[in-house]
Amino acid sequence: MVSIKTVAVLGGSGNLGPAIVTELLSAGFSVTGVTREGSTNSTPKYPDGLPVQRVDYGSFDALKTVFDGQDAVVSVVGFPGLAGQKLAIDAAIAAGVKRFIPSEFGVNTQKARGTTIGNLLTVKIGVTDYLAEKAEANPSFTWSALTTGHFFDWALENGYYGINLKEKTAVIVDSGNEKAHSSNLAQIGRSVAGILKHPDETANKYLGTASFNAAQNEVIALVEELAGIKLTVESVKSADLHKSGQEKLAAGDPRAFSDFLREFAFAEGKGNALSEEESANALVGVPYESLRDTVTAWLKKAGVI
């Protein structure tokens, strides 16, 4: 039976990393933050007292040194650092790391293979394929990839879910009834911790967990009920989002990804919610959350209720 006690978190200065670190610590793991030497993020949002190592992500020797003594590596690097994970994987294997969790999260790239958004995420797909190859060649090394859907609470707070509380408006895709795979940031952290607490059951698997599957209209109805307001709702066609994304892509506009993401998640009939059969919530010991409670917390934080 594999035992995981020490965890290095690669990256973690962004939105998701601190939530993962917090939940790993809460679960009893010994955590070390590993940030890129020369990073413009001057102060990683880690808990006080957490050991943090700054290393050259492009140096095999530097990565191997910082991974020595670590049972697992969890990568939360941003898009520019995704391809560099292959070097980190090689260094982890050389250091005797037992488990590697890549910076996957978000979109289910296995479902997205061959789609437009999947083509934009080929680097992520390549990393999971590389992990599978390396695990097969090195039996003491294992991996787990985790898809979590929308970062739901973060998306609400940052306007990416299409609801503007100040203007009392909302934008839905197609009918707004398509349920989307969604996870709160802390839930993602608990899922990562759950994977590492169940290393044998989660070895060499692509897993999906969620807080809930939420339709845009469900969220709008809750906002109106809890806040006592009426939102003016506008609908955009998923076909128009696809066309807009293609035009932006041709022009080199990175905002194309947002259009394709909304199409992938919310287009009528897409069926990209996390089904009960696919869900690993029970496997990793993470209960589903309440959509009502999440929306309530957001509205309170926003000072609406």
UniProtKB/TrEMBL annotation:
InterPro entries: NAD(P)-bd_dom_sf, NmrA-like, NmrA/Isoflavone_reductase-like, PCBER-like
Domain NmrA-like: 5-241
GO MF terms, alphabetically ordered: oxidoreductase activity
Domain of life of the native organism: Eukaryota
SUPFAM superfamilies found in the cross-reference section: NAD(P)-binding Rossmann-fold domains (SSF51735)
Keywords, sorted A to Z: NADP, Oxidoreductase
Protein name: NmrA-like domain-containing protein
Species whose genome carries this gene: Lasiosphaeria hispida
